[in-house]
Amino acid sequence: MSVKAGGVRKQRRWLVxxxxxxxxxxxxxVIRGWQQRSLVSGAAPEIDEITVRGDQIALDDxxxxxxxxxxxxxxxxxxxxxxxxxxxxxxxxxLVTVAYNSGEAEAVQRYIEREGIQDWTTIVxxxxxxxxxxxxxxxxxxxxLDGSARIRFKEVGLTSGWGLRFRLWLAGVLFN
Length: 176
Description:
By secondary structure, this protein is of the alpha/beta class. The chain is built from 5 helices and 8 strands; from the N terminus they run H-E-E-E-E-H-E-H-E-H-E-E-H. The longest helix has 34 residues, at 2-35. The model has no long low-confidence stretch (mean pLDDT 90).
């Protein structure tokens, strides 16, 4: 009889663990939804700006290709954690970054050189105008756009490089 009782206890323990896992997962999704509540959806607001290198850039330049639009700040320690994965991502995918409230173009350029992230296409958003159009209240914030400049995925906070790559791949495969 004790063998049976031990098996029942193990089964109940797994059910409790499963329930706890589902509760934690639900809490994570609720928090992520709350963090993303202000971010825009649908068609991406148009961007037609000058990069820190002096190049003209528009979202139309990426027609037919997925692109990652990433908002960051030079004062954001969480943003610093993503620099390496974004630099790796930029080798294979379209990446446009927006330096949000990080100073004038010269200060952002010095920061980019110091951090070794020259391979990024970066726009300066010192007054926060672009961020407001996208509903960005905090950084890091990322938008994955499909080839028609529609927002397919959006994230606030630390995101893994492989997760961003997967979302870019999905945007290219499913929505182009």
